[in-house]
Amino acid sequence: MTDKHLSTQPYKGVRDFYPDDMAIQQYLFDVWAQTAESFGYERVEASVLEPAALYKAKGAENEEMVNEQTYTFTDRGKREVTLRPEMTPTVARMIAGRRQELSFPVRWYSIPNLFRYERAQRGRLREHWQLNCDIFGATDFTADVELIALAHQIFLNFGADESMFEILINNRHTMRQAYELLGITDEATVTAITRLNDRKDKIEAATYEAELTKIVQDQKLATEITAMIESDDPGDNQVVAGLKELGITNVRIDRSLARGFDYYTGTIFEVKDTHPDNRRSLLGGGRYDNLTALFGGEPISGIGFGFGDVTMRDFLETHNLLTANITSPVLAILPMDRTLNLEGQKLAQNFRAAGLSVATDISERKVGKKISTAAEALIEYVLVLGSDEITASSYTVKNLTTGEEMSGTVEELISQLTAS
Amino acid sequence: MTDKHLSTQPYKGVRDFYPDDMAIQQYLFDVWAQTAESFGYERVEASVLEPAALYKAKGAENEEMVNEQTYTFTDRGKREVTLRPEMTPTVARMIAGRRQELSFPVRWYSIPNLFRYERAQRGRLREHWQLNCDIFGATDFTADVELIALAHQIFLNFGADESMFEILINNRHTMRQAYELLGITDEATVTAITRLNDRKDKIEAATYEAELTKIVQDQKLATEITAMIESDDPGDNQVVAGLKELGITNVRIDRSLARGFDYYTGTIFEVKDTHPDNRRSLLGGGRYDNLTALFGGEPISGIGFGFGDVTMRDFLETHNLLTANITSPVLAILPMDRTLNLEGQKLAQNFRAAGLSVATDISERKVGKKISTAAEALIEYVLVLGSDEITASSYTVKNLTTGEEMSGTVEELISQLTAS
User: Fold this and answer.
1) Are residues B24 and B143 in the same domain?
2) Who among B17, B46, B142 is closest to A16 (CB)?
3) Is A21 a residue whose pLDDT tops 60?
4) Interface contact flag, B9 A103, Cβ < 8 Å
5) Same-domain check for residues A28 and A146
6) pTM above 0.90, yes or no
7) Is the pLDDT of residue B158 over 90?
8) How confident is the model at residue B420 (pLDDT cuts 50, 70, 90)?
9) Which of B143, B294, B358 is closest, CB to CB, to A6?
C-alpha cells in the first residue's frame, strides 16, 4: 500500500446508487414491473456481455457505430465482446433461440442496464437502465394498441394524468403509401424525406420546405408533401382509433414522426412530455417485421418500446410526482449502553418474527443522539432499552412523528405496531 | 446482411434468463431483499464498471490477479476499466466517499452481478449475482452476531430448517493469540499454517500433520497445534455465545476455518450445506479492521458476507425448497376471432383497473388451442369472448385448475375474482 490514496469517485459517466437514490430507482423499477405484469408480460434478463457480432452484423455502417460508440473489447479467447448498448438484439436472439418452444404471441419485459461510449460531455451518462416491453409474433393491430396502452398506463401508475404527456403515432408503411400517392416511389427519396422529418420540429418551417424542395426538386410537390405531413387527420389509422376506443385521449397522429432506427416497418410511436420545461421525447418504439432475420428462419414480427430511467425520473421531477421505495426499518431499538446490545438483538428478533423491520443502534452514541439519528433516518418508532425494561419485560415504543408512546410486553407492542 | 446466420447462444460463460429462470432469480432476490430489509439494511448499487486501480492497489500479487482473472480493458480515454469481480471494494469506495455524511453504523446490502475471467471449464460461470450484506463502523461483537443471524434468517425465510445447514465460526485475532500461546509469533509461519488449515478438510489427517510438522519443524508442537485446531470448545467466543442466546443452535467453532481473503482481521464465518450431495460452502464472510484504508482517513471497521445466486439455488434444489415468483397473468381473455381482439383489449383494461393482471390471446389459434395454451402458461382463469357475450354484457370465467365457472357482468366477475 502506498501513501497515495485512491479516488472515491466512480468510473467516468456511471453512477453510484446510495440508499436515497437506490430507493428512487427501486420505485421506478417496481412500478415498471408491476404495470408490465398487469398486462401479462413476463420478465427476462441476460448478461451485459454479448458477442460483438450481434451488433456488427447489420452492415458496415453498423460496424462503425459499434467500434465508435460501444464498449467493445477482445477477451483472452480472442472473442470480441460488447457491453450491450440496447436490449432489442439480445431479446431477438433469445426469441430466435427458442422459437420452436415458445408459444406466440410472446410478451416480454426487461429492465437491463445499457452502455454507450459517449464522447465526454457534461451530464451524458455512459450507463443507464431501460424498461423494454415487446410483443413478438402478433401482427394484429391490437398488439400495437395494447403496447401503447401499456406505455400510457405506466404514466398513470406513476400518478400522471393525460395533460402531462402526449402520444404521437405514425406508420412507416402508411407513409410509404402516402408518398407513392404523391408519385414518390424512389427509395432514396423516401429515406431523405424521412430523415428530414426527423429534424422537422427542430428547424424553421421555411428551412423545412426549402430542404424538402431540394430533395424532390419540385416546389409544388414539396408544398403538397408538407400539407400531408402536417395534417392531423388520423385517416384510417386503426391504432389511433383503437386507443381512443380504450378511452385514451392524449393521442394524435404525427406524420413527421420518424424515429431513428432503420428496422421499424409499421407503427412507430413516441411519448412526449407536455411540460414547457421538459419538452422532450420520453419513450419511443415501433413495429419491425422481421427482427430475428439475423438468426435465420421464418420472419417473426415484433412491436416494442424502451423507456430510460433518467428520462423517467426527469418527467416525474418536472411534474412533482417523484417518490421512492424507502427501505428504512419501522422500528429502531436503542440500547442505553453497549452491555445491552445483545439484549437489543434478542428483542429485535422477536419483532422481526412478527414481520416488522427492525434495526438496533449499537453505536457508542448517547441515547438522545441515537433518537435524533433514528429520526433523521426516517425511522417511525424507537424503543429505548435499559436494564429496568429488561427486568420488567415491559418496553416503551415512541412514534417519532406524533410523539405518542405505548408501553407493554413485546406481544402487546407487536399487536399494536402490526395493527397500525 | 449475409447468408450466414448468427448464433443464438449467449456469450461464453454467461446465462440468458428466460421467464422460468427469471422467475426463480426474482424469487431469490426478493427473499434476499426482504430479509436484509427486515434487519434494517438499506439497498445500494453501483455500476459494473470500476477503475482497475480499485483492485490493483493492494500490491503486485493483486495486480497479477486483476490481469489474469478479471475483465480489464482500456477505454478510449486511456482509462483502465474492470468489470467488478467482487462488491466489497466498491462498497468500501462508496463508504469512504461519504464518510462525513453517513451516520455509523451503516447497514447496507446489494445484489450485484460480478465477473470473473475463468479459464474455460465445464459449468464455470463468468458472471453471477451475489447478495452482499455489510455493517460498517460498529466494532461491538453484537454486530457480528447480527450479521450472522441475518445469514441464518435467510435460510429460514427460504423454508430451510437448522438441520439443513451449519454455521462455522472462527476468529483471526483469537487464532493469532492461540499460536502465540504455543510460541509461534512469526508472521510467515502463522500465514503458512492458516493456508494449510484452508485445505484441512480436503486432505488426509496424516498429510495434514506431516505438512504442519514441516512448517513448524517440531512434531510435538504440530500435535499440540492439531489438538487446538480440532477442539470444538468455543472458549470465550462471544459471537458463538451470542448466537446461542438468540436461539441459533446450528453453530459451532471451527478453528481450521481460514477463508481466502487477506483483509479479514477478526471474526470469520462460513455456512455449509449439511446434505451429503452438496457438502460445500454456501456463503462466507468476516470482519476487516480497515477496509477503507486505500482511500485514506480514519480506519472504518466492517463485517460482511457474500452469497451467490448459483450456490443459493443449488442449496434450494438439493433440499427441495426451490420455488419461483411466477409472473403469469391471473386471467387470459380469449377472443373467438380477430375481429373481437379490440373488444378483448377493452375488457382487459376493466379487469386491470381492479388490480388483476390480464393478457389477451390475440393469436390466430382456435379457441380450444387458446385454452390449452393458457393452461400451459399456468394462467388461472380464462374468459372466452364471443359477440354474444359482448351484446349481453355478460361473460363467463373458467378456473382452469378446478374447472369451475362463474358468469356475470364485469363488475360481478371482478368482485368474485378479487375476493378469491
Assistant:
1) yes
2) B46
3) yes
4) no
5) yes
6) yes
7) yes
8) low
9) B294
Burial of B57 (0-12, 13-18, 19+ CB in 10 A): buried
Is A346 in the same domain as A270? no
> Comparing C-alpha atoms, which of B188, B185, B164, B167 is closest to residue B176?
B185
Average confidence score pLDDT of chain B: 93
Interface test with A, best of B9, B16, B83 (most A CBs within 10 A): B16
State the complex-level ipTM: 0.94
A176 and A217 share a domain?
Answer: yes
Tell me the nearest-neighbour CA distance from B222 into chain A, angstroms.
34
The answer to whether A17 contacts B46, with C-beta atoms less than 8 Å apart, is yes
Q: How far apart are CA A255 and CA A225, in angstroms?
A: 10
Nearest Cβ partner of B362 from A46, A79, A105?
A105
Is there a contact between A58 and B242 if contact means CB atoms under 8 Å apart? no
Nearest CA in chain A to B18: A44
Q: How confident is the model at residue B1 (pLDDT cuts 50, 70, 90)?
A: very low
Domain residue limits at A349: 331-419
Instruction: Determine the pLDDT at residue B262.
Output: 65
**CATH for B415:** 3.40.50.800
Mean pLDDT of B52-68: 79
Count other Cβ atoms within 10 Å, centred on residue A98. Answer: 12
- Say whether B417 sits in a helix, a strand or coil: helix
Is residue A352 located within the same domain as residue A206? no
Report whether B395 contacts B389 (CB < 8 A).
yes
Antiparallel, parallel or unpaired: β B331-335 and B381-385: parallel
Instruction: Say whether B348 sits in a helix, a strand or coil.
Output: helix
| Res A333: pLDDT | 97
Number of domains present in the structure of chain A: 2
Across the range A57-64, mean pLDDT stands at: 71
User: pLDDT by residue (tens digit) across B67-95?
Assistant: 888 999 998 888 999 999 999 999 999 99
Strand pairing report for B358-360 and A80-83: unpaired
A interface mutation test: which of B62, B99, B327, B381 has the most A CBs within 10 A?
A: B327
Q: How many residues does chain B have?
A: 420
